[in-house]
Write a structure and sequence with these properties.
homodimer; two-stranded antiparallel sheet; 7 strands; about 10% helix; globular
Chain lengths: ~140, ~140
């Protein structure tokens, strides 16, 4: 044992301070990431889905602010650092397969970069109503 | 124009009846899938995350039952076909990037194969409290 914080290296080669016990259980996609669902803790709104690697999860657990890995920019991304629309972390859970993260947050302002409260507000698809017993799906 | 339902072939080569306008907008991962969040429509509980290809989304929109692509089994999977724990579809939305689906459902029984109501009930991670202004994350 030393007093130096341990770091480990997940599959993508980025060093991480994530608890090794959690890191050992986490099931990542081929690019070393897991999907992370952000949910408003009191209203239950699903705000957005981002991606986390080990270090992003570690920062989310230890800094109080939801942190993602930006696939497009290839860097860590503290939600709100640019916009001020921080996500203050209330709780974090893994799912039963340890391949998805659910973060309950208190969202400041809009979660979506469009200015909408959530990223799912604008693009509602049409569901065929009353079709449950009528439609035969294509063969597999 | 013909009276035959059109099908298209998404990147993974599986034929799909998905509306071509939606298919043209959908941004899939390299394996042709998008993450799909299932949320209980009235309580707001996040139940689980599954994966959909074009045809799974098409079936979800047109059959009234939430349908996923099983990555482990390599086949379509109507949630509840084995367990009876169907997800009756209430609404479907794409996010602002068209790379994630949110399905609001009425979940019959347990969403999780463990018997838990949701897949996020059992594995709560410890969040470091009061750390928001104190912790310096690792350098990028």
């Amino acid at each position: 044992m030393t007093s130096t914080p341990s770091t480990s290296t997940p599959p993508q080669g980025r060093p991480s301070g994530l608890d090794p016990e959690i890191a050992a259980r986490l099931k990542r996609s081929a690019d070393g990431l897991v999907p992370a669902i952000a949910q408003q803790y009191d209203t239950g709104e699903v705000l957005m889905l981002g991606w986390m690697d080990d270090e992003a999860l570690h920062r989310t657990l230890t800094t109080g602010r939801c942190t993602y890995w930006s696939r497009s920019r290839g860097e860590y991304w503290v939600k709100g650092d640019t916009s001020g629309h921080f996500q203050h972390v209330k709780s974090v859970a893994l799912d039963c397969d340890a391949d998805t993260v659910l973060v309950k947050v208190d969202q400041v302002g809009a979660a979506c970069h469009t200015g909408a409260r959530t990223c799912f507000d604008a693009d509602i698809l049409t569901v065929l109503e009353g079709a449950e017993s009528d439609v035969q799906p294509l063969d597999q």
